[in-house]
Design goal:
five-stranded antiparallel sheet; four-stranded antiparallel sheet; 2 helices; about 180 residues; Jelly Rolls; about 10% helix; mainly beta
Amino acid sequence: MVPQSTGIVGCELVPVAANRDPRGCLLEVYRQSWINAFATVQWNVCISNAGVVRGAHVHVDYDEYYTIPKGRVVIGLTDIRRESRSFRESIQFEWGATDDVAIVVPRGVAHVVAFEDDSVLAFGLSGYWTPELDVLDCQWNDPELGLRWPDQNRRRSERDTHSGDFRQMLRLYEDLSAQLCA
């Protein structure tokens, strides 16, 4: 069940407009007026089968806006921004296409998406994806994320299979953040 709030600074749940009838649904997934935090410059679509997990990933130089037009996932979020009043706060919940909500995931919030059904996850980025900075990750089930996953048997990418631990990800995030601010 989707909560009313994430409890993580800047990580917002955004109601989206669903127009359903017997033929299906027209889902308005994004309007810039819904979130004043950022405009998107790039959109991606991730199509995953049930039983797949993606993450844990964190970004240094862009925010994301997640919407799920098809399927059902469990999403886990952990704030790794030391300056944030919600540092080390975590939340996870089940979320799907019929919940009519999108999620703003700000830079510095680690995220894991576990696909319960065959699903489509669409997401907008506030900056362009760059492979040099998009290498921040840790094991999806690292206990320091503060997330509890009942099903430990998930399919992962090669990258996610060989990612490091939470402390390595946090150190790298802080180092890259300091470089970008310098």
